[in-house]
């Protein structure tokens, strides 16, 4: 390390590794992981989100989970929460749908209305 | 490819480690593997998070959930419920008056705190250089080395108003300026980590929790004064702190943040760790310097000050751990920002180790000038149980006791000194109304007599005299004039001693006489310790109305001085009683009372012995 620019490079990389501790988060993905969600494959859904985000090196997206959301017939259910926008809830998710949501909604900013089951709070 | 979605921060400060944090960490590894989600969770060992009383504690991100008093058995539930299903375990959260507090940021203990030196403590992995850099680490060093002249650096510290956090409160910039102005082929910077006050653990926690911060502060100081070598003097009782700071030095060297030509600025620096053997006097800067030189850790008269003739005769600055811990933040956030906190003469924040009879013992950092009331009752959570606040000892064995009348005193160097206490390094021992102040003074005096190096006679002989008087008072042989004699001795020792140890050692006695003179008088005149702490000035008594004659006390008495029967109940033969308290502890119906004062039988016996001795002399 010889310059401040070198330090900055290390810092950016390290901040990326610490983003879970509340850095710069643009979109928060909340996967419903209650009993029915898990039974319907919520773990697979969450894993696919994690894989897609890592593969695309999306540094400002965070995946977290929550309990039963009450929409049992539409499990697995996923919320996408973006600062300053209404919450979007996707239902009946599966790994293929996840991939589409990542590309369309998270990367390109277009809500995949076919999968949406609710919006707003 | 990282699939991590949870950061599990386990507090691995010494308090939580002794409460079992490491076993919990191992258990997490096992359980996560069982659930097959080990690749989704980062387990991070952090430094002290502060609320030691709740230990072992942990924080789970991204939600920022705070769990307290976690046991190995709780791990399976945390993983199955929180990590797998996303349902945080409310049972393990902090309960505050029927309200469950989930997030760390909402915990009342943290509300009035402002973290500067402890910014990263409990937030980053102290063994990871990358995590320190992620929080802005070494940026200050880089800027200082590439853009600032040494004099500019000193000016920034001057503007910030930073004063030494080791106790005395000497302005940091003056020390730096003196060494800067002294021309010498070699200069040294020493970090004083010889924290020896009973009840203090600020420096240890900072060294353990954020070692790179202290190292960065040291390097900035070295650049400002023109030093190329640094020493960390850390007591051997702090093995983890020593390990972490050694690791930090190693890591910094590996990436070129230390060594030759740092940041291409031409600045060269090397540092090493020296361990102290645990002598309290080695926290005194001259004694510390001699100890590093390989000599006996004795103080020598000043002047010459270390800034003129320090380590191996070269200009040397000795800065406390916490002082160095503030430096990098001052440069990152600006001197004005730092100076905006605190009082007119005491700027910034101060780390305190809260201990004693309060609810939230632990490590806290608060702005200077906060009142003792806020520190003890808001941050510290107030007294345990139904007890009342009686006194607080600030500054360890060198400091003094303050009372309920001083609760609205702001905590800063001058206000405390005026009232007979001192900031000290930051140990705060809170005492409830069960404590005997004469006994407290005796405890600290005993400590200072043990730790006196013996070089100068006021400290070596004088303190011993004070201790003997205190022992006399607490064992029922106190005489009229003892209080005045203690004051006379204390004042002379303060004036005549060579170093800070002797100069401040009488403080606990002088301040307790000042504020609790009536307790001393009761001990001397009435031969009575109203709080039943001094064993010679209290006795145990069995209340025959309550006694059920079970004989348990008699059987547990080590000197068989309790006699009686089921019908007659039991009595203590007071002359033989050694006051071990076994009977008091085992009595199933709590029929035994502690009574203040010497029992008449014991007093008569003492008189008889005295007379016999007197006759013998004749």
User: What form of chain A results from the Cα inertia axes?
Assistant: elongated
CATH topology annotation of the largest domain in chain B: Rossmann fold
In terms of DSSP E residues, the strand content of chain A is 15-25%
Kindly name the structural category of chain B. alpha/beta
Query: What's the structural domain tally of chain B?
Result: 5
Shape of chain B: globular
| Largest interface, counted by CB within 8 Å of the partner chain's CB | A-B, 36 and 35 residues
The CATH class name of the largest domain in chain B reads Alpha Beta
> Average pLDDT of chain A, to the nearest integer?
84
Q: Spans of chain B with pLDDT under 50 lasting ≥5 residues? A: none
List unreliable stretches of 5+ residues of chain A.
none
What is the annotated CATH architecture of the largest domain in chain B?
A: 3-Layer(aba) Sandwich
Biggest sheet statistics of chain B: 5 strands, mixed
Q: Helical proportion of chain A?
A: 25-40%
User: What is the subunit arrangement here?
Assistant: heterodimer
CATH superfamily of chain A: Glutaredoxin
Sketch the topology of chain A as an H/E string, one letter per element.
HEHHEEEHE
Query: How is the largest sheet of chain A built, in terms of strand order?
Result: 2-1-3-4-5
What count of domains describes the coordinates of chain A?
1
């Amino acid at each position: 390390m010889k310059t401040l620019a070198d330090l900055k490079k290390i810092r950016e990389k390290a901040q990326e590794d610490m983003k879970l501790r509340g850095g710069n988060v643009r979109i928060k993905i909340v996967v419903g992981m209650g009993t029915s969600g898990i039974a319907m494959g919520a773990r697979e859904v969450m894993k696919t989100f994690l894989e897609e985000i890592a593969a695309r090196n999306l540094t400002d997206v965070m995946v977290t989970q929550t309990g039963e959301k009450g929409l049992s017939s539409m499990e697995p259910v996923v919320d996408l929460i973006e600062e300053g926008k209404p919450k979007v809830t996707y239902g009946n998710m599966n790994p293929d749908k996840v991939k589409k949501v990542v590309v369309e909604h998270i990367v390109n900013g277009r809500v995949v209305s076919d999968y949406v089951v609710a919006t707003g709070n | 490819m990282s699939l991590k979605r949870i950061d599990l921060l386990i507090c691995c400060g010494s308090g939580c480690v002794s409460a079992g944090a490491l076993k919990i960490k191992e258990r997490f590894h096992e359980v996560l593997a069982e659930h097959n989600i080990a690749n989704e969770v980062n387990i991070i060992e952090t430094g002290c998070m502060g609320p030691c009383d709740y230990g072992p504690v942990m924080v789970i991100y991204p939600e920022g959930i705070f769990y307290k008093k976690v046991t190995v058995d709780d791990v399976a539930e945390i993983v199955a419920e929180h990590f797998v299903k996303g349902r945080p375990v409310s049972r393990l959260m902090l309960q505050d008056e029927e309200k469950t507090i989930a997030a760390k940021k909402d915990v009342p203990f943290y509300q009035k705190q402002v973290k500067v030196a402890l910014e990263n403590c409990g937030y980053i992995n102290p063994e990871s250089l990358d995590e320190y850099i992620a929080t802005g680490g070494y940026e200050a060093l880089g800027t200082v080395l590439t853009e600032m002249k040494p004099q500019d650096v000193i000016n920034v510290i001057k503007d910030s108003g930073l004063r030494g956090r080791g106790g005395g409160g000497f302005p940091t910039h003056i020390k730096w300026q003196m060494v800067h102005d002294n021309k010498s082929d070699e200069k040294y910077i020493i970090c004083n980590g010889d924290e020896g006050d009973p009840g203090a653990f600020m420096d240890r926690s900072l060294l353990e929790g954020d070692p790179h911060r202290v190292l960065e502060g040291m390097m900035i100081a070295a650049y400002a004064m023109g030093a190329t070598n640094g020493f960390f003097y850390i007591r051997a009782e702090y093995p983890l702190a020593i390990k972490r700071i050694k690791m930090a030095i190693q890591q910094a060297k590996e990436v070129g943040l230390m060594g030759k030509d740092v940041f291409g600025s031409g600045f060269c620096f090397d540092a090493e760790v020296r361990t102290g053997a645990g002598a309290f006097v080695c926290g005194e800067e001259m004694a510390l310097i001699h100890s590093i030189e390989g000599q006996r850790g004795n103080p020598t008269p000043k002047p010459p000050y270390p800034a003129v003739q320090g380590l191996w005769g070269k200009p040397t600055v000795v800065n406390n751990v916490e002082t160095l811990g503030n430096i990098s933040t001052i440069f990152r956030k600006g001197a004005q920002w730092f100076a905006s906190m605190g009082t007119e003469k005491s700027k910034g924040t101060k780390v305190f180790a809260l201990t004693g009879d309060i609810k939230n013992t632990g490590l806290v950092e608060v702005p200077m000038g906060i009142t003792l009331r806020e520190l003890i009752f808001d941050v510290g959570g107030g007294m345990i149980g139904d007890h009342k606040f009686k006194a607080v000892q600030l500054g360890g064995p060198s400091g003094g006791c303050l009372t309920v009348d001083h609760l609205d005193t702001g905590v800063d160097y001058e206000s405390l000194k005026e009232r007979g206490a001192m900031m000290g390094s930051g140990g705060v021992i809170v005492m409830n109304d069960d404590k005997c102040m004469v006994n407290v003074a005796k405890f600290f005096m005993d400590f200072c007599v043990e730790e006196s190096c013996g070089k100068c006679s006021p400290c070596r002989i004088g303190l011993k005299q004070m201790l003997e008087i205190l022992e006399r008072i607490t064992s029922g042989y106190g005489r009229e004039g003892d209080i005045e004699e203690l004051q006379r001795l204390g004042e002379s020792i303060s004036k005549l001693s060579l170093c800070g140890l002797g100069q401040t050692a009488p403080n606990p006695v002088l301040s307790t006489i000042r504020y609790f003179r009536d307790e001393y008088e009761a001990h001397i005149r009435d031969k009575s310790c109203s709080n039943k702490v001094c064993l010679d000035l209290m006795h145990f008594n069995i209340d025959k109305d309550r006694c059920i004659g079970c004989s348990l006390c008699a059987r547990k008495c080590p000197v068989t001085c309790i006699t009686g029967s089921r019908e007659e109940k039991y009595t203590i033969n007071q002359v033989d009683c050694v006051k071990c308290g076994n009977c008091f502890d085992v009595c199933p119906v709590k029929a035994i009372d502690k009574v203040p004062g010497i029992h008449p039988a014991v007093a008569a016996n003492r008189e008889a012995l005295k007379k016999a001795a007197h006759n013998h002399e004749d």
